[in-house]
Automatic annotation (TrEMBL):
<keyword id="KW-0460">Magnesium</keyword>
<dbReference type="InterPro" id="IPR005110">
    <property type="entry name" value="MoeA_linker/N"/>
</dbReference>
<dbReference type="InterPro" id="IPR005111">
    <property type="entry name" value="MoeA_C_domain_IV"/>
</dbReference>
<dbReference type="InterPro" id="IPR036135">
    <property type="entry name" value="MoeA_linker/N_sf"/>
</dbReference>
<comment type="pathway">
    <text>Cofactor biosynthesis; molybdopterin biosynthesis.</text>
</comment>
<dbReference type="Pfam" id="PF03453">
    <property type="entry name" value="MoeA_N"/>
</dbReference>
<comment type="function">
    <text>Catalyzes the insertion of molybdate into adenylated molybdopterin with the concomitant release of AMP.</text>
</comment>
<dbReference type="Pfam" id="PF03454">
    <property type="entry name" value="MoeA_C"/>
</dbReference>
<dbReference type="GO" id="GO:0006777">
    <property type="term" value="P:Mo-molybdopterin cofactor biosynthetic process"/>
</dbReference>
<dbReference type="GO" id="GO:0061599">
    <property type="term" value="F:molybdopterin molybdotransferase activity"/>
</dbReference>
<dbReference type="InterPro" id="IPR038987">
    <property type="entry name" value="MoeA-like"/>
</dbReference>
<keyword id="KW-0479">Metal-binding</keyword>
<feature type="domain" description="MoaB/Mog">
    <location>
        <begin position="186"/>
        <end position="324"/>
    </location>
</feature>
<dbReference type="InterPro" id="IPR001453">
    <property type="entry name" value="MoaB/Mog_dom"/>
</dbReference>
<dbReference type="Pfam" id="PF00994">
    <property type="entry name" value="MoCF_biosynth"/>
</dbReference>
<dbReference type="InterPro" id="IPR036688">
    <property type="entry name" value="MoeA_C_domain_IV_sf"/>
</dbReference>
<comment type="similarity">
    <text>Belongs to the MoeA family.</text>
</comment>
């Protein structure tokens, strides 16, 4: 038996090969209340001006600015209130000299009015109020079209819809939103040592933690996945499972079995499926054996079984591919330059990815390993919000050095209030 010779490629190159694949998911429409997290499939164009009419941004009085000329503390000018409107109501009145309409926030400016006096700036009288300062035209008025005008592109195809996007879509009456479909994803954990979460431990066995972890990573992106039953290290049955999954899903994520061990069958499975292997060796630690292949418009991500390698492989390769196939214009991970707070002396033959805690609390960003960090480690993943990227070819890194870190957390809450 000859050992297959694998050629390592740089991580950047591996990521590029993943996102260069032209696998695209179809457009669809989803309910506005379900649309957050999707990628928008069309530009959204303003079909009317916002604001749609000149309106009051305050509770106060709509007036004619020309009537305030010369107003001062010793020359208070009196106004007569001729109408009273709240948001959603229109005044029938047209203002004449010295007249005002009591107006609430959001109400359309009455005819003739071009400024708003805030309630706090007035002194009440029997007929209305007096004021003590002159107003300029449009003072305290939210002008028609000041935010967007008809025809403006307010949301771009390829952007991820966040809560603000939902608000814009609601503004323009999109009960149903044009989006790209989310991928259907299968998760198949492979390994004869694996037990399910509810199983009693047995000698030589461990519980499958990668499967639930990948499921959670997908959920964090609002993507649901199908968890297949654990596969023994057996070529025929594993091939069957992967083959079936390829028929049904856009992405098949396997964990384990991708190395060159006697019971690692994923390379044979890719061959049997006639899949195009994009790479099967990456110049990175952990997870150098991570393999990505494509067949029948389905991505096959062969993640290493080592939990930290599995996690890192998801962040580096799966996530960008998902957003790319969903039509996103932004699909690369966010990186931050941070000060290393702990020595990391291990030399790096390959670029090393270390589960890390980054602190991004206003001052200078800092980063340090989030715990015991061998590739088999699980606990450090749980305490991480970043992955430190330590390039190869050095004798290690020391406290105070600047390093890059990839941000992985979906929330950025801090333990301490920033002051
Ligand atoms: P493999 O990639 O199959 O060579 O597995 C590498 C290491 O990761 C071995 O120590 C496995 O026991 C462990 N491992 C594989 N799959 C899983 C899994 N689903 N959950 C936790 N550990 C795993
Ligand atoms: Mg294995």
């Amino acid at each position: 038996m000859t050992l297959e010779k694998r050629q390592p490629i740089p991580v950047i190159e591996a990521i590029q090969r993943c996102v260069k694949e032209q696998i695209r998911l179809p457009k669809t429409r989803v309910d506005l209340y379900e649309a957050d997290g999707y990628i928008l499939a069309e530009d959204i164009v303003a079909t009317y001006d916002i604001p749609r009419f000149n309106k009051s941004p305050y509770d106060g009085f709509a007036i004619r600015s020309q009537d305030t000329v010369g107003a001062s503390g010793t020359n208070r000018i009196a106004f007569k209130v001729i109408d009273h409107i709240g948001a959603g109501s229109i005044s029938e009145a047209t203002l004449g000299e010295g007249e005002a309409v009591r107006i609430m926030t959001g109400a359309e400016m009455p005819q003739g009015a071009d400024a708003v006096v805030m309630l706090e700036q007035t002194v009440q009288t029997d007929e209305g109020f007096t004021l003590r300062k002159p107003f300029t035209p449009h003072e305290n008025v939210a002008l028609k079209g000041e935010e967007t005008t008809t025809g403006d592109i307010v949301l771009k195809q390829g952007q991820r819809i966040n809560a603000g996007g939902i608000a814009v879509l609601a503004t323009f009456g999109y009960r149903h939103v044009p989006v790209f479909t989310k991928p259907s994803v299968a998760i198949i954990a492979t390994g004869s040592e694996l037990l399910d979460v509810e199983d009693e431990l047995e000698p030589g066995k461990i519980r499958n933690s990668n499967g639930p972890m990948i499921h959670a990573l997908l959920r964090a992106e609002n993507i649901s996945s199908y968890v297949y039953k654990i596969q023994q290290d057996d070529f025929e049955s594993s091939l069957d499972a992967v083959r079936q999954a390829v028929q049904k899903h856009d992405i098949v994520i396997t964990t384990g079995g991708v190395s060159v061990g006697d019971f690692d069958y994923l390379p044979d499975i890719y061959r049997a499926l006639n899949a195009t292997v994009l790479f099967n060796k990456v110049a990175m630690r952990p997870g150098s054996v991570t393999t990505v292949a494509v067949t029948e418009d389905t991505y096959l991500f062969g993640l290493s079984g080592n939990p930290s390698a599995c996690y890192t492989g998801f962040e580096l390769f799966v996530k960008p591919s998902i957003y790319r196939m969903m039509g996103a214009t932004h699909y690369y991970p966010a990186m931050v330059n941070a000060t290393l707070m702990e020595d990391f002396k291990k030399p790096n033959p390959f670029t090393r990815f270390v589960r890390a805690t980054a602190t991004l609390n206003g001052k200078e960003a800092t980063v340090k390993p989030s715990g015991f960090n061998k590739s088999g480690a699980v606990v450090a993943i749980a305490h991480s919000n970043a992955i430190m990227v330590l390039p190869s070819g050095t004798r290690g890194y020391i406290t105070g050095q600047r390093v890059e870190a990839l941000l992985t957390a979906t929330d950025y809450y801090q333990q301490d209030l920033y002051v």
